[in-house]
Amino acid sequence: MDTLALSRLQFAITSMFHFIFVPLTLGLSIMVAWMETRHLRTGDELYLRMAKFWGKLFLINFALGVVTGITLEFQFGMNWAEYSKYVGDIFGAPLAIEATLAFFLESTFIGIWVFGWKKVSPRVHALSIWLVAVATNLSALWILLANGWMQHPVGYVLRHGRAEMVNFLAVVTNSYGWLKFFHTVLSGYVVAAFFVMGISAWHLLRKGKTDFFTRSFKAGATFGLIASVLVVLVGDFHASEVAGTQPAKFAAIESQWETQTNCAYSLICYPSVKRERNIVETLRIPGLLSFLAFGNTGATITGLKAFPQDIRPPVLSTFLSFRTMIALGFLFVILSLIAFIRSRGAGLDSLHERRALLRVMLYALPLPYIAGQLGWIVAEVGRQPWIVYGVLKTSDAVSKAVSAAQVWASLIGFTLLYGFLAVVDIYLLAKTARKGPGPELPAGAGQKQKLS
After folding, report:
1. CA nearest neighbour of 200 among 363, 362, 345
2. Number of domains composing the chain
């Protein structure tokens, strides 16, 4: 493998590993903040115990997310120096804002939340976790606006052999970036909801702390239903955006080779190594793909054959990832709706008796993580061969001064380190989740107990 292939592999491994932690952080911060606010408003000590327990799991995940995210930015200067020189004037701005605004806000107030249980008022303490949640989502916004510019570059000119920003407002209002932000953040909320429901289901199947985990399960079901429905709706808008701004990617995700008007959509597709294009399509509905892309059954969909072969994205991996992600998205709506209805129809003492539902939600816990990873495969593999769509090819962005041997060394090092961190993370999360919440608090204890 040459330097380009190794650098791409290294960035893929490190970014996908980092994104294991990001979505749970996005969603669980909101849920923990809601739990503590409910305690503040109702005085119900059960909500405080929920905030403490799920907050511990949030902190473990948050710590690993910070550690694994730092290495990504180093790679822009090490493996992708030509990219940094070419578009650093634009790409660096939202990343700098993310670091100086969102990350510092996040890290400051998470310290107050962890160490301030006996030192600040209950209102200030609840405000601190809300500020952590807002900062976490703001951090995602600026990073995804940067990525959105790579997908749909705006507000720049090519001058002196590099891209220079001429309109910062165009960059921060880029519709592609905002749709990507909402789709990514909402998918993180689904991850958190299924995480809470999955762990709660595990305890309820063992009839442990029934009241606590019944309340948690219901909160997860409500949060998950809202988030999963919104993910599907935003995803539809995002797909239309892709059709308009990245027609080659759109053709790849639908395996559409011919340019057609009134283009049909295939409801049933499966891979086949015996066919030239590797995809077998059946049950086609005329005009549906044109309607989904542009809101008009008579719209024209540009096929892959209309693009030169050297700028066509990989089709099979993009197509399968997209279709699997879509199927999982609708599955999350169905599962969260069933969980919401069934848990609302169950009293505090009867949810643990719905064992089939609990088993399904336990086994479904990893599925939103898989869907999120597939979404990034669609976004990044489907953009190839461009690193900045239509502006800079990936092959032109790799560092010229870095050898394949050097990338091999760092790739092996990162893989070993991340493998170790994965073991630590799984161990800590599993140990904390199995242990469950602390003992019930005496009436009025409230903020007197530390996060322990």
Report:
1. 362
2. 1
